[in-house]
Amino acid sequence: MKILIVTDAWDPQVNGVVRTLKSTRRELEKMGHVVDLLTPLEFRTIPCPTYPEIRLSLRPKRFVAQRIRDSAPQAIHIATEGPLGMAARGYALRNGLPFTTAYHTRFPEYVKARVGIPLAWTYRFLRWFHGSAQAVLVPTRVVKADLEAFGFAPERVVLWSRGVELDIFKPGATMPHDLKKPIFLYVGRVAVEKNIEAFLKLDLPGSKWVAGEGPQLARLKAEHPGVRFTGVLGQAELASLYNAADVFVFPSRTDTFGLVLLEALACGCPVAAYPVTGPIDVIGDAPAGALDDDLRTAALRALTIDRLAARRHAERYSWEACTRQFLQHLHPIDEVRSGGATRARPGALAGDQGPPL
To answer: pTM above the 0.85 mark?
Structure first.
């Protein structure tokens, strides 16, 4: 099958969405499928306000339409709600093509944290955007329940879990350091919605590490001179960082999953987190991490967890299994060529009234 994946999130971004799409593409190609990626690399872009790493494609409608026609995919998946996702969605609806979408990020919560827009307003937009998809792919049951509570049709919201590259993230060499033990580590974007300050302000023994970049980096480095900030690292370096750390602290309350949780666990690094979406789904009551409304209590309790238990828990997740879920939910296009036109299978929506105001 030839699959077109449309995404506004791509290189040089380093985040869970990009990693998920790259891993899924790799597994799809292993299975013999052809994957065509439509990304901002093909467009003139501008930086997203407050998120300069995210590039917004300029005036993509016409080019996206031509790219879809040239690609002639047998299935379309729209991964993001940005300019490319909007353009691809519009083309698919105008031409009666079925498509699936994905809900990767707690966008309403992020927008509220940054600019104060009420959750109901943003969820209304999301219901409009995803409502025309044959299926909306979400990473966990908790996220599925959240979307249904905001008015999404339960039969349209389906599970697409996440995995970890166990051959890269595994127990092994540790990153050289001179830090006082124990070492508490955070990996991810350095941004307000990640709630990193809740970690940095904890009264913990030993040392703290932060790996990643983002809009809060300069301020947090100035305010916390005793913390080691490493910037963005490659996967091999990250694995050695996880191996050097004693506890991985995940302070976010808004992530839909948290791939870094699996990476840390795969290296044998126990997790400390709040009992919220993401940690609840990945760890639950397994002996691989400690969840507590008091993050300091969770971090100290995680010090007592066997690293082998953490690794064993991560081994339950594979990208191959996740990709088979992805394939199961795709809606192939029934190609009936007549004068260059492609007709969708019956039931595909053919029109659209535009985004809600």
So the answer is: no
DSSP characters over 91-118: HHHHTT---EEE--S-HHHHHHHHH---
Of the two residues 155 and 116, the one the predictor is more confident about is 155
Q: β-strands 45-48, 34-38: how paired?
A: unpaired
> Torsions phi, psi of 2, nearest 5?
-100, 120
249: domain CATH number is 3.40.50.2000
Residues of the domain holding 242: 183-314
Going by C-alpha positions, the residue among 137, 142, 176 that lies closest to residue 159 is 137
Do 298 and 233 belong to one domain? Answer: yes
How buried is residue 232: exposed, middle or buried, by Cβ count under 10 Å (0-12/13-18/19+)? middle
Sign (positive/negative) of CA torsion 207, 212, 213, 215? Answer: negative
Residues 293-344 have pLDDT tens digits of 999 999 999 999 999 999 999 999 989 999 999 999 999 997 433 334 444 4
Q: Tens digits of per-residue pLDDT, 227-246?
A: 999 999 999 999 999 999 99
Question: C-alpha angle with apex 140: 330 to 78, nearest 5 degrees?
Answer: 35
- Tell me which residue of 90, 76, 23 sits closest to 329, measured CA to CA: 76
Give dist(CA 4, CA 323) in Å, integer: 15
